[in-house]
Specification:
Blueprint (H helix, E strand, L loop, with lengths): L1 H43 L13 E2 L6 E3 L5 E4 L11 E3 L6 E8 L1 H4 L9 H12 L4 E8 L5 H11 L6 E5 L22 H7 L3 H14 L7 E2 L20 H25 L3 E5 L20 H17 L4 H14 L4 H13 L3 H13 L9 H14 L3 E3 H6 L20 H18 L10 H14 L2 H18 L11 H6 L16
Parallel strand pairs: 1-8, 5-6, 5-7, 7-9, 9-10
Antiparallel strand pairs: 2-3, 3-4
Helix pairs in contact: 3-14, 3-15, 4-7, 7-12, 8-9, 9-10, 10-11
């Protein structure tokens, strides 16, 4: 009897196995046409990501960043674009000894409020030349003031023709600056985003989407931006142009991820190594640029929150724990108030609760209605694209945090809301240098000490004349007015600050911070 039962069980198990095997084979057979379709699309290049095509925004016109000089031997920045980019040049022909790096990004890459001479790309070129002098290192600064990822894409595509050995992209601060609202676009549910990103990596899906867009959409369904940047803060009543709009913020996050994916695929197709960098932001010494209470709150409640925040500031001198409790009540009452989060973070910082303070101050950035600093949502998109595309990612924000009080970037490493000090640029350059060593881009015969490399950066700072620093001070004041929505006001420089430019041991404004 037992033998019969065992035999019956084996037969049943065999049938069940055959049943599932048949289902699996049927599924694979059904997928075979899709696999063949994908292979055909890849073979013929159908469905490749085209950096010139952006389904989110369009441009009135585009132009190259570089053009040949009269001799035809060098490429240099087009004069008409020097309002946003600094003038650089490099040989048309690359020698066998040259290693050519292009660094793309916004004003952080450019080195504002100063210029490219004291930017991390310049420092990187200097330390590479010091460590491996037999190689001709050329690091080309393509940092554009107020340039978001979607404006960098055509430039990145252009530079693929200039014999690059490495692309470095440091972006994420300028995504909200321009009005890119698209009222007809639907926001995708967060739970669906990873699945949709996976699908859109398939070429035949891209072909189908493009055909659908050509059949049903008109160019008017996306905003058309001017040829050059015109930020909301460059216009009158700049801050008033920033309003709370979670749906639009979701579109910006999707657009950012879309742009990063386009860059990653372009570099993969062209076999150009790509390095992504998460830019740093000032958390501890930069209040939100625009904070509002939730629309659901009554005026009396908003007034009560403000009163509680003032009371917490006063109470902090005698009872920090009670002051923190008051501020925590404020953020519980209205978690969308950026200034409440910032005040809570300041109180936590004062009480040496550094981990809590970092979280609160980051939330203040996330709730800022004028988001001039990279938000957590944008950082998550950056990390997601880096993982899915296999692109290396360095965190400059975390790097500078390690050098800051309580692990929170502030005035010691940042001169305003997003721009590093000279020391900050030095640290970023050395971070990239170490990565290049690990990635095999450097062939060093012996270990190189960092101290001589740091001295090379400091020698550059010492070598520049006073006019360079005075101009930087004026730009810094202009940046602070601009970030406060007062871009059209005249710029005045304090004579005492001008005299500070004489001090090379403590570079001008390196410990200054935006306080709005």
């Amino acid at each position: 009897m037992k033998v019969a039962d065992a035999a019956t069980g084996n037969v049943a198990a065999s049938r069940q196995y055959s049943h599932w095997l048949f289902r699996l084979l049927a599924l694979l057979a059904g997928m075979l046409p899709l696999v063949l379709l994908e292979l055909i699309c890849r073979f013929y290049g159908w469905g490749r990501v085209d950096p010139a095509i952006d389904p989110f925004v369009g441009f009135a016109s585009t132009s190259h960043l570089f053009e040949p000089d009269p001799s035809g031997q060098f490429l240099r920045t087009v004069a008409a674009r020097e309002k946003f980019f600094r003038s650089v040049e490099f040989p048309v022909r690359k020698s066998a000894e040259e290693f050519r790096i292009f660094v793309f990004g916004g004003s952080t890459v450019q080195g504002r409020p100063w210029s490219i001479e004291t930017s991390f790309p310049a420092f990187l070129e200097a330390v590479l030349s010091q460590a491996q002098p037999q190689t001709t290192w050329k690091v080309i600064n393509c940092g554009g003031v107020s340039y978001a990822s979607y404006r960098l894409l055509p430039i990145i595509e252009e530079c693929t023709a200039y014999h690059p050995d490495l692309f470095i992209l440091c972006t994420g601060q300028n995504e909200f600056l321009e009005d890119t609202s698209w009222s007809g676009r639907r926001q995708m549910a967060p739970i669906l985003q990873p699945f949709v990103r996976l699908l859109t990596r398939l070429h035949f899906i891209r072909v189908a989407v493009r055909f659908s867009q050509q059949s049903h959409e008109t160019p008017q369904t996306r905003p058309v931006l001017p040829a050059e940047v015109l930020t909301r803060l460059d216009q009158s009543n700049g801050l008033e142009r920033f309003q709370r709009d979670d749906r639009q913020a979701g579109h910006v996050h999707q657009h950012f991820a879309h742009n990063l994916n386009r860059v990653a695929e372009l570099c993969s197709r062209q076999r150009i190594p790509l390095l992504l960098i998460r830019p740093p932001v000032n958390l501890s010494d930069c209040p939100p640029f625009k904070s509002e209470f939730s629309g659901e709150l009554q005026n009396i409640t908003a007034a009560q929150i403000l009163e509680q925040l003032r009371a917490a500031q006063t109470l902090a001198a005698t009872d920090r724990a009670a002051a923190i409790q008051l501020a925590e009540n404020c953020v519980r009452t209205d978690p969308r108030s950026a200034i409440s989060w910032y005040e809570l973070g300041q109180l936590q910082l004062l009480d040496h609760r550094y981990e809590q303070a970092a979280a609160s101050l980051q939330q203040a950035v996330n709730e800022d209605l004028c988001p001039l600093r990279m938000t957590s949502q944008l950082e998550q998109q950056l990390q997601s694209v880096a993982r899915s595309s296999g692109t290396p990612l360095l965190n400059a924000h975390e790097l500078l945090a390690q050098q800051s009080r309580g692990g929170i970037p502030g005035g010691g490493m940042m001169v305003d809301h997003v721009h590093p000090s000279f020391r900050g640029h030095e640290e970023i350059a050395l971070m990239i240098f170490r990565w290049m060593q690990d990635a095999g881009h450097l062939q060093l015969s012996e270990e190189v000490s960092e101290e001589p490399l740091r001295q090379v950066c400091r020698d550059i700072v010492q070598s520049l004349d006073d006019s360079y620093y005075l101009k930087g001070l004026r730009t810094l004041q202009s940046l602070k007015l601009w970030a406060a929505g007062r871009a059209l006001e005249p710029i005045l420089v304090d004579p005492e600050n001008e005299s500070a430019a004489q001090d090379r041991e403590s570079p001008p404004a390196s410990n200054d911070s935006a306080s709005k």
